[in-house]
Amino acid sequence: MRDKFTIIISDINGSKHYTVSQIIKKVLLYILLLIVVLVIISVIWVRTLLDNLHSIEKRKAEYEKQMKVLALRNDALFEKIKTLQTQIKSKTERLEKINDKISDLENMMGIKTDMSESVDSRIDLLKLTSIQRKVALRNIPNGSPVKYNGVTSSFGWRINPVKKTKEFHPGLDLRAKHGEKIYAPADAIVEFSSYYKGSGYGNLVILDHNFGFKTLYGHLSKRVVEKGDFVKKGDLIGYVGSTGLSTGAHLHYGVMYLQSFINPYYFVKWNENDFDYIFKKERKVKWQSLIKAIQNQIQLLSQQEQK
Q1: Backbone φ/ψ region at 249: left (φ over 0), alpha (ψ -120 to 50), beta
Q2: Domain covering 144-274 assigned CATH 2.60.40.1930 in the classification
Q3: pTM of the shown model
Q4: Residue 110 pLDDT > 90, yes or no?
Q5: Residue 1 pLDDT class (50, 70, 90 cuts)
């Protein structure tokens, strides 16, 4: 039997004998227990770390998914913004064109532009309803008083075909056959209907229309209206002839506004299908005031009907 080292530990309870092999065994046991505990703790810690890592990866996947959704939404928003910017640009350009057209019409009609007013209010001042247009065309000379077959002599300076001298021609000579019917171009009262000696017009009819307009009809072969008669648009007022200073059958047609002659051609060409034509061509008439007068007249009649 090999020699053994014996360790004796004495206390009040007595003495205990330990051999080296026993001590080593206990130390080894403690070490083993420590290792087991460490392994268990390591396993638990690793498991916890793995769970946390899995949770992190899961959240990362969710975040990546949300990021993709947000990226798609972001792209869609950018496309929408781009589309809106294009639409805004297009509408801005259209609005600028509308403003330009409104300004042109305002200039034509003598309306002072107030850029602080909305486009709607400016358009309301310019536009006329179908009723207002009818009222305007009923009261202001428009269209040809005879079947239109052209003009033989225009408004302005010319050589008089009879006198052979240069003079101002205050009307149009409308081509027409002898005896052709002449119709009133708007409602009016007959201001003059007689043979006008010394004027060169021969048989002459003058109609006094509303809003400061008058029309003259010269060289008639026959008059069918008398001074003081009321005539409506389209009523017969006489027949084409060649009385007075004339080289042949035609109708001398003149238009006056506030006692001044203006070019009748614009009024001959004016009709409901091209209502704005007159505003572009005739600048001597204060159309803004006239339109307001028509609007006020219709509004007053409407209020009276409601009562």
Answers
A1: beta
A2: no
A3: 0.61
A4: no
A5: very low
